[in-house]
Amino acid sequence: MSVWFTEKQTKSFGITGKVRRTLESEQTDFQQLEMLETEEFGNMLLLDGMVMTSEKDEFVYHEMITHIPLFTHPSPKKVLVVGGGDGGTIREVLKHPDVESVMQVEIDGKVVEYSKKHLPTISSSYGDARAELLIGDGFEHIIKSEGVYDVILVDSTEPVGPAAGLFTKGFYAGIAKALKEDGIFVAQTDNPWFKSELIKHVMRDASEVFPITRLYTCNIPTYPSGMWTFTMGSKVYDPLDVSMENISELDTKYYTPELHHASFVLPRFVNRLLDKE
């Protein structure tokens, strides 16, 4: 008998996939964690029933949350990753030779543990000498930091449970304090089809803290609607001013120098959502 899982992305819509076997299923101190082996997307991490990453399409998210800000900043030496326990974001950060250190603060150690076990190609950089892992609250770490980081990447789940506080104006103000005078932050901000109000609120709040605020998109098939957004807040540098000559070639599968600029070209309905028209 075939076994399928369904992620209910709204009350009346979801996506479904065929499961070969369940590798892990545990209620951690913070969330329900499942690791599934699927037919179409390989091993897949779910938190509270939501797809976080899969072996087949993970590179899109991890490359786009990382390389846009790290190529926008001219010298990203110290990087903070909030969340991202699967390890994919720090893997991409460490492709940049200017990076001297990357600190990751992940609240749920079980995500790291099971990602190392079942997602080895994603979690492959945990042993790198430039990477440091702290199991703890990213919000608290941000509040305690001042003028430390060049780039902060908020690789969180959706705004429920332990991640709810990571989508507030107070958090963005804390990020601004934790960044250096020319710092940049990027956060994943869901999709414009089902979470339009969330995107509007994040852009509004971030723009009240950062003088340069941009929204950009990519395509991730296992995420709700397939169309995903990231919000960038920058104190000095505009990603649209980056010259393609200053973007070096990396070992990527999705991100390209041309896509760096193209990802900021938004569909009309998204521009209207942001009152750009």
UniProtKB/TrEMBL annotation:
SUPFAM superfamilies: S-adenosyl-L-methionine-dependent methyltransferases. Pathway: Amine and polyamine biosynthesis; spermidine biosynthesis; spermidine from putrescine: step 1/1. Residues 2-235 form the PABS domain. Keywords: Cytoplasm, Polyamine biosynthesis, Spermidine biosynthesis, Transferase. GO terms for molecular function: spermidine synthase activity. GO terms for biological process: spermidine biosynthetic process. Gene3D superfamilies: Spermidine synthase, tetramerisation domain, Vaccinia Virus protein VP39. GO terms for cellular component: cytosol. S-methyl-5'-thioadenosine binds at Q31, E106, D137, G138, P162. It comes from the Bacteria. Its EC number is 2.5.1.16. Spermidine binds at H62, D86, D155, S156, T157, E158. The active site is at D155. It catalyses: S-adenosyl 3-(methylsulfanyl)propylamine + putrescine = S-methyl-5'-thioadenosine + spermidine + H(+). Homodimer or homotetramer. Belongs to the spermidine/spermine synthase family. Catalyzes the irreversible transfer of a propylamine group from the amino donor S-adenosylmethioninamine (decarboxy-AdoMet) to putrescine (1,4-diaminobutane) to yield spermidine. This is Polyamine aminopropyltransferase. It comes from Rossellomorea marisflavi.
